[in-house]
Design a protein that fits this description.
The chain has about 400 residues and is an alpha+beta fold. It has helices spanning about 5-10, 15-25, 25-40, 120-130, 150-155, 185-190, 220-240, 245-250, 270-275, 275-290, 300-330, 340-345, 350-355, 360-375, 390-395; strands at about 60-70, 95-105, 110-115, 140, 160-165, 170-175, 180, 200-205, 210-220, 250-255. It contains 15 helices and 10 strands. Strands 3-2-1-4-5-10-9-8-6-7 form a 10-stranded mixed β-sheet, sandwiched between helices. Keywords: DNA recombination, DNA-binding, Transposition.
Length: about 400
């Protein structure tokens, strides 16, 4: 809807398009940023009905990022990697933005939501913004965030981590007198005995030698071939050959954690790690439903106001979804689809906005959401595969 017409229709406020555009300035950006900050800091408690595995932890903190290209005119603030221009791939555009997002899987509380330029990678973000570490927190993050200083910081705070093993990290095993691990030998043993998994007590890092559990699981041929194909293409570009050690290593998944085995047994390690995929699904919802990555050329302050307002809208609906999902699961043991819920929220966005001024109307909307959820938002089980929500419920 045209903003000028909307303001006149809903608020009887007459204003020109130019006057509206003038109001998108640094102060307006700060205003939206502070609303978002206030939303993030507001206490939000989802019912913690976890009597199983995850109840061992204070918080289960999942973090990931999503990037998308911006108009070339935004390069001075949001720098990219190349010269692809607006609409190019994320690794080849002049202007690029990254959205860093972290939330607690147990409470649903958003712990971090920031905008950075595309040149700031996840590793540097992990170094600069891993804070508020509390005893018995569990941190689950993608490989891009994982470094030895990060792992040491988590362990030093009395918390726990679960990560994939970074490719170039040196690992020492007790079985070999704490000599560097021979990955070719390891793969040969697992292949010979047809092992579905293996666990070793190891020291990670050439200098740090951080005590960890290393859980090893073989991958299917399709995953192996994809890894080798990617490494071979990279090798051709940088003029090197893929080593036999890398080929052996590519046949396996490696997970490292400092959680005691009695609290997280070997078979559950991969299941818990896949909880991280919740954020990948959420980012897809953000892009498909809120269109956060579809940016037209405009003044940068207007873009930032729009993006912050979309993130505010997404987080408010996320809270409604978490509340609704818990209520429906407690009542009927039915899991709800975040994708289906956001599609519905997008359809009734105008009604939701108007209901913010009328608590009675908001209550009616929430009652209706609960009523239709078991029919319209039910999470359909994929054939022979658990969804991330089902995995979470199974573990809990």
């Amino acid at each position: 809807m045209d903003v000028c017409s909307d303001l006149m229709e809903e608020y009887e406020l007459g204003i020109t398009k130019q006057a509206i555009d003038d109001r998108f300035n640094d102060r307006a950006v700060l205003f939206f940023r502070r609303i978002l900050d206030r939303l993030l800091s507001a206490e939000f408690n989802t019912c913690k009905d976890f009597g199983g595995l995850l109840s061992r932890f204070n918080r289960v903190r999942i973090k990931d990022s999503t990037k998308f290209p911006l108009p070339k005119a935004f390069t001075h603030k949001y720098k990219g990697h190349g010269g692809g221009g607006n609409g190019g791939k994320s690794d080849n555009c002049e202007s690029l933005i990254s959205v860093q997002y972290e939330y607690d899987m147990l409470s649903g509380e958003t712990m971090d939501l920031r905008l950075t330029d595309g040149l700031k990678n996840d590793l540097s973000d992990s170094r600069d913004f891993t804070d508020d570490i509390r005893e018995n927190d569990l941190f689950i993050r993608d490989l891009g965030y994982c470094s030895l200083p990060y792992l040491e910081k988590i362990a030093g705070g009395g918390a726990f981590f679960l990560n994939r093993l970074p490719a170039k990290t040196v690992v020492y095993t007790a079985e070999d007198g704490y000599e560097p691990m021979d990955f070719k030998k390891l793969y040969a043993i697992m292949n010979k005995h047809k092992l579905s998994h293996m666990e070793l007590d190891v020291l990670v890092g050439k200098k740090a030698k951080l005590p960890c559990r290393l859980v090893i699981m073989p991958v299917d041929n399709a995953t192996y071939e994809k890894r080798i194909r990617k490494a071979t293409e990279k090798g051709k570009h940088y003029k090197y050959k893929v080593s036999q050690e890398y080929r052996a290593k590519s046949r396996l998944n490696f997970f490292i954690t400092n959680v005691d085995k009695k609290d997280l047994d070997t078979e559950k390690v991969r299941e818990v790690y896949t909880l991280r995929w919740q954020l990948e699904l959420l980012f897809k919802v953000w892009k498909s439903q809120a269109k956060i990555d579809q940016i037209k050329e405009m003044k940068i302050e207007r873009f930032e106001c729009q993006l912050y307002s979309k993130l505010i809208w997404l987080l408010l609906n996320w809270r409604i979804f978490k509340w609704m999902g818990n209520e429906i699961y407690k009542r009927e043991r039915i899991l709800c689809s975040v994708w289906k819920f956001y599609k519905y929220a997008t359809r009734i966005a105008q009604r939701l906005r108007m209901a913010l001024k009328d608590p009675v109307q908001m209550e009616k909307i929430l009652i209706r959401v609960l009523k239709i959820a078991p029919m319209e938002f039910i999470l359909e089980k994929k054939k022979d595969k658990l969804s991330q929500n089902q995995t979470f419920t199974h573990l809990a």
